[in-house]
Write a structure and sequence with these properties.
Length: 171
Amino acid sequence: GECPLDGRSCTLTRALHAPEVPEMHGRYGKTKSNNGRRMMQVGFSTWCMVEIAREGKFTWEHAIDYAAEIGADCLELTHETGYGYDFEDPDRELIALKERAAERGITLSGFTFPANFAIDDDGALQTEIERVKTQIDRADSLGVKFVRHDIARIAGRDLEDFEHFLPFMVK
């Protein structure tokens, strides 16, 4: 199918409307019963919308509405500063997102964000740990029980760099 937001191919829309796949198993979400069978809720992550979010054409509110429109059950929110999903007033905005999702019947099933523990400066590492704790608190305020985050940003580095930073990441 075609994504109604920007005309690009949308795998989720195609999967939801494919007659040979009447029930799709989603990656995240609570299990539910369907005639005695257990199945996962169908959903997607806002990460797949990051390009149009970066352009200012898509927000988490749009994602919730879009998920409801296409018949999804759940939505994973990806929070990465600079990718269109930033908070100006986190407390107010998180409450509004939780309410909007509930009103539209969408379970907020996951909260993902980057983190970087590959830091060899104790002060900077502690700052990053505190930032991750804040993100986990945000997920909790949304009622999300599944949190996923990176532990390092070492792309383009070699095995020697990985071995150097591994103790800091484990710490």
